[in-house]
Automatic annotation (TrEMBL):
Record PROSITE patterns: HAMP
Chief place of localization: membrane
HAMP domain sequence ranges: 298-350
Protein's name in the database: Histidine kinase
Species for this entry: Paenibacillus shunpengii
Length: 578
């Protein structure tokens, strides 16, 4: 009874409510989607129609058009030359795919219809679009059907153009590209149309409807009495909804209505099927579950009471309790986990004592290590003092070169020891490189020559420490191999642009063969590093890629017998990845 009252009846009530909710939600979402689609189409159409509007505004005051329209031509040859020279309409058509044609209807009897300039006839004057355009100052939008003198069958912008200087007037027509405006509606999920003020469908998802009147669709809706809103009606004997919104382009005497039509059945059909299947499934599950509830509840309660008694004994402090409830179900697993828990608690209590003793021993060991590290700091000071004493002795005895080299060695060692894991400036890094090169120059004498070129504007740019010196060391060590005449090392730092700094180390040593270069490139990008290497190319490459990304790693170019060039780039002011 508890199961029926607490589970079955509430689930059935909730299921019915959820079914109705899903159905209503699907309908609301469809309406909201249709509204959003209509708003989007309205914005796209407004943007689309702004192009012909702007073109008509330009032509309204165009002097070349004014001259062509108001000139009286004495011969066909003169008229033909004028038509041939006038290319303004064609230029606009080539620039804007929204347009399909531009025409001007004029009262000048000396002009001939060339589908750009069309003399006004009685038939044209009787058309509604011409009559409204010639008597209004604002822009008009009309669906214009085709005639022998004016092939159209498209939406057109029409407006009166007045020429005060000549006391004349005419009508400008800008025909819209029907394929482009239909393309705005081609991806809509529902049947959507754009209807002009005369009731003509000027664009539609179903392009076969273009040119027909909305009344001919027999939907039973009068758009003239429904400017905006949602209409409930029957379309093809099915309950449907029609969403209507108004579009009025700027500076226009009339506008359009955007109409979206969808049937209720197409929206809620899937929701109804899913809800029905769900209700049947829920009912079946509830009935089957009802049969098991009674049996399972009886068996479960008996075993749970036994386990509960064991738990109470543990709560009283007896950690030697063992549960004997068997089975592979949840209660059997819970019994075994209970036994494991009690055993773990007993073991943990023992381990806590042992861990406490280990922590004490570890704390003592860490203090000893810290004392040793503090003591080890004496050694660098002793070494610097010793080097300084040697330098002074050499200087006193006139060994200026040896004194200078000892000074550079001490400076190099001090800077290397002072460098942490942060960043250093390009200027500081180049000081280390210069000290290292001068020491090597003392060692190799005429066999080594070097040149440093540094853009002064790059002095204060930050880079990772010890990122250039390993490349210089590599150039000297490998450049002097089997090279009796010596080697020249060039270090150049320059600004590539506002964002990148380029650092290049080049030598004219023995170079690297293609096979060896391939091995080097594989090695610096590999996961492991040889134990004999110090900082090495791989270390520099890995630090660059980890700091700035793969594109800022080392680039190595070498030609055997000619030399080697290694360069990389560093972002200016960029943050490190690590």
């Amino acid at each position: 009874m508890s199961y029926v009252l607490v589970v079955m009846i509430p689930v059935l009530i909730i299921g019915i409510g959820v079914t109705y909710y899903f159905r209503q939600q699907a309908m609301d979402q469809a309406i909201e989607q249709a509204r959003n689609n209509v708003d989007r189409i309205k914005n796209q159409a407004s943007t689309f129609l702004r192009v012909p509007t702007d073109i008509s505004n330009l032509l309204l005051f165009n002097k070349e058009l004014e001259t062509v329209v108001n000139t009286e031509y004495s011969s066909i040859l003169e008229l033909t030359k004028t038509y041939h020279a006038f290319d303004l309409f064609n230029e606009y058509l080539q620039q804007y795919r929204e347009l399909s044609a531009i025409r001007f209807f004029t009262y000048n009897p000396t002009l001939v219809n060339n589908l750009e300039f069309i003399p006004v006839t009685d038939q044209i004057e009787e058309t509604r679009w011409f009559d409204q355009a010639i008597h209004a100052r604002s822009i008009g939008w009309f669906y214009v059907p085709s005639t022998p003198d004016n092939p159209a069958d498209a939406l057109a912008l029409v407006r009166r153009v007045h020429f005060p200087e000549y006391q004349s007037q005419g009508v400008l027509m800008v025909l819209i590209n029907r394929y482009e405006i239909n393309n705005i509606l081609s991806q809509e999920p529902f049947d959507t149309m754009i209807v002009d003020s005369q009731g003509y469908i000027v664009a539609a998802k179903d392009i076969s409807l273009v040119g027909r009147t909305f009344d001919s669709l027999d939907i039973g809706v009068n758009l003239s009495s429904q400017v905006t809103g949602i209409i409930d009606t029957d379309v093809k004997n099915e309950p449907s909804k029609i969403i209507v919104d108004e579009l009025l382009p700027a500076s226009s005497m009339n506008g359009f209505q955007i109409v979206s039509v969808f049937s209720n059945k197409s929206i809620v059909n899937d929701a109804n099927k899913i809800s029905l299947i769900g209700m049947l499934f829920i009912g079946l599950v509830l009935l089957v579950a009802l049969a098991f509830v009674y049996v399972i509840s009886f068996l479960t309660t008996k075993r749970m009471l036994g386990l509960s008694r064991q738990i109470n004994r543990v709560a009283l402090g007896d950690l030697k309790v063992v549960s004997n409830i068997d089975g592979n179900d949840e209660i059997g697993q819970l019994s075994r986990q209970f036994n494991s828990m009690v055993s773990s608690i007993d073991q943990l209590m023992t381990q806590v004592v042992e861990t406490s003793e280990q922590n004490n021993r570890l704390e003592i060991a860490q203090k000893e290590i810290k004392l040793k590290m503090m003591a080890s700091q004496i050694n660098p000071h002793f070494l610097f003092n010793a080097l300084e004493s040697i330098r002074m002795k050499a200087h006193i005895k006139g060994e200026v070169e040896i004194a200078n080299i000892v000074r550079l060695l001490g400076k190099l060692m001090r800077k290397n020891l002072e460098i942490g894991s942060g960043l250093t400036t390009v200027k500081a890094e180049m000081e280390i490189v210069q000290s290292y090169l001068q020491i090597q120059k003392f060692r190799y004498e005429d066999r080594l020559d070097f040149e440093l070129r540094l853009d002064k504007s790059a002095d204060k740019i930050y880079i990772p420490p010890l990122i250039i010196q390993p490349l210089v060391e590599n150039a000297i060590v490998h450049g002097l191999e089997n090279q009796e005449e010596g080697v020249k090392v060039e270090v150049e730092i320059q600004n590539l642009d506002e964002k990148l700094l380029r650092i290049c180390v080049k030598d004219n040593g023995v170079g690297i063969t293609e096979e060896r270069l391939a091995e080097v490139l594989t090695s610096i990008a590999g996961p492991d590093e040889e134990e004999k290497s110090r900082i090495g190319l791989r270390n520099v490459h890995q630090r660059l890629t980890l700091s700035y990304g793969e594109e800022h790693g080392l680039n190595i170019y070498s030609e055997y017998g000619v030399g080697t060039e290694i360069y990389f780039t560093v972002p200016k002011g960029g943050s490190l990845n690590v």
